[in-house]
């Protein structure tokens, strides 16, 4: 169940600024991976706890696109800061998707004006080679409010990028499947071949470059 318990526990230990971190776009065959860092301090956390809107914050995959857009604006306005980090398809192909995800997360944290004292990220792995204190929380987007907020920001930011790519490459339907390997997407790739934002290192796109 989502709550602010993790955040409040960290504040009680003396941490003044914490952030939740999550990403969108690890699995698609095209486009970037996008990470978001959402920070809180004790005062902002207390204000949020009394805010009715936080009951709608949850893992981005459990929300409609309309609700994600609404919550994106709410998070921007009511959390301390939001940082977004992006690694494009070329970087993903060069260093692999896991390393690109970590790099996007580092970029998201660096985009915050005030450095957090502690970072919580969704998943099993901590960010390597980072001096920040951190904790990887399995299914954190279902239990830690700041991580769930980050999942919404990352998803909306990436979806908007894929909408822009759809305008440039409309034959692939990026506005519908966001680059995931759906039947419609695969049929478009079979007909037209990959476009410049497809990930060359990902099967089944890689076969076009062998």
Count of individual domains: 1
* Oligomer state of the chains in this structure: single chain
Broad CATH class: Alpha Beta
Query: What is the percentage of strand-forming residues?
Result: 15-25%
CATH architectural category: 2-Layer Sandwich
Q: Characterize the main sheet.
A: 5 strands, mixed
Rg value: 18 Å
Unreliable residue stretches: none
Provide the spatial order of strands within the biggest beta sheet.
3-2-1-4-5
CATH homologous superfamily (4th level) name: Ribonuclease H-like superfamily/Ribonuclease H
User: Which structural class best describes the helix and strand composition?
Assistant: alpha/beta
Helix fraction bin: 40-55%
CATH topology name? Nucleotidyltransferase, domain 5
Number of strands: 5
Helix count, per DSSP?
Answer: 8
Q: What is the molecular shape?
A: globular
Order of helices and strands: HEEHHEHHEEHHH
Average pLDDT rating: 96
Distance between the termini: 46 Å
Written account of the structure:
- With 210 residues, the chain is of the alpha/beta class.
- It has a single domain, classed as 2-Layer Sandwich (Nucleotidyltransferase, domain 5), CATH 3.30.420.
- The chain contains eight helices and five strands, in the order αββααβααββααα.
- The protein has a five-stranded mixed beta sheet with strand order 3-2-1-4-5.
- Helix 3 crosses helix 6 and helix 4 crosses helix 5.
- The longest helix has 24 residues.
- The protein is globular.
- The termini are far apart.
- The mean pLDDT is 96.
């Amino acid at each position: 169940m989502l709550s602010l318990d993790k955040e409040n526990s960290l504040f009680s230990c003396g941490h003044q600024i914490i952030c939740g971190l999550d990403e969108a776009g690890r699995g698609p065959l095209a486009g970037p991976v996008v990470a978001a860092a959402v920070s809180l301090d004790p005062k902002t956390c207390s204000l949020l706890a009394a805010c009715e809107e936080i009951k709608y914050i949850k893992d981005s995959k459990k929300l409609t696109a309309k609700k994600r857009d609404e919550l994106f604006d709410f998070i921007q306005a009511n959390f301390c800061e939001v940082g977004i980090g992006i690694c494009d398809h070329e970087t993903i192909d060069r260093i692999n998707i896991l390393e690109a995800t970590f790099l996007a997360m580092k970029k998201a944290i660096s985009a915050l004006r005030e450095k957090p004292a502690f970072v919580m990220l969704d998943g099993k792995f901590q960010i390597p080679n980072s001096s920040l204190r951190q904790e990887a929380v399995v299914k954190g987007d279902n239990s830690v409010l700041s991580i769930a907020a980050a999942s919404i920001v990352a998803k909306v930011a990436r979806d908007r990028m894929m909408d822009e790519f759809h305008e440039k490459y409309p034959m692939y339907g990026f506005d519908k499947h966001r680059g995931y390997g759906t039947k419609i997407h695969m049929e478009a790739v079979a007909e037209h071949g990959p476009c410049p934002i497809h990930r060359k290192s990902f099967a089944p796109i890689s076969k076009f470059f062998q």
